[in-house]
Amino acid sequence: MKWILGLLIGLFSIDAHAQSSGSSVLWEISGKELTSPSYLFGTFHMLCATDYTMSEGLKQKLLKTNQLYLEVDITKPGLQQELMTQMMLTETSLDKELGTDFHIADQAFQKITGLSLSLFKQFKPFVSISMLALQTLNCPDKIQPETILSNLAKNAKIRIGGLETVAEQAAAINAEPLDSQITSLKKMILQFERSKKEMNELVRVYQLNNADSIYAYLQTQSMSTEFEQTMLIRRNRNWIPKMLNAMQSAPTFFAVGAGHLGGKEGLLVLLKEKGYQLKPLEL
Prior knowledge:
This protein has helices at 2-9, 56-63, 79-86, 94-98, 102-113, 125-135, 145-155, 166-174, 178-190, 192-206, 211-220, 225-249, 267-273, and strands at 26-30, 38-43, 47-48, 67-70, 142-143, 159-162, 252-257, 277-280. By secondary structure, the protein is α/β, with parallel strands linked by helices. It has one domain (2-280). The strands form two sheets. A six-stranded mixed β-sheet has the order 6-4-7-2-1-8, sandwiched between helices. The chain has a two-stranded antiparallel ribbon with strand order 3-5.
């Protein structure tokens, strides 16, 4: 179940006492051929409105740049439809995969979301899990920090781009075997109260603003080599050339899941290896 929460949110829970000094989720990128700094921000993809306030300092860093790069350009028309198309099950269906468990799963799913699982039977389990994940946030008003950033950028006429396409992001999600996704869906339905507690911890931890500790905790949670390679390392490596091109063309603000920042092959290390200077900033 943790792999899907990590994918949706970009980080896992950490111990408050595991923090290291000199780290942050907001970094200034300078040096080499850059005449003006760019910025890298580790975000949390969905939060209760009451749990997040974008600081004035963060806003000003964005407004000092000429372009905003997210994992995917969420302002692109038809984005949701394109993602749903990528998530279609073509040779089977969710009810077939769940078999005799489908009826029980459907009843529990309806109790949690108010929707029938049958509505999503032609989609990969990721879609249903996403619906459940939204409900782990116990609040009426939810926000996506990337949406706030993109709205600020549009109002300031700052260009918006994506480090990967919808198809590339979907390919990373679909790399998780179908049977593993099915197992995660069943566990999340049956252990939904536990998932809510995990989400509460994730929110608390994100507010610690520490990229090093986020990655360190991933290691303590027995993150599989396959997950790290597919969801973190491979995507980080793919993003670096695009980040370099963007920064070389204009000062850029990057906002990606906070789990991508830390580690030996995290974005912070990869940028340093390319000769850039990284400085942690206060939010």
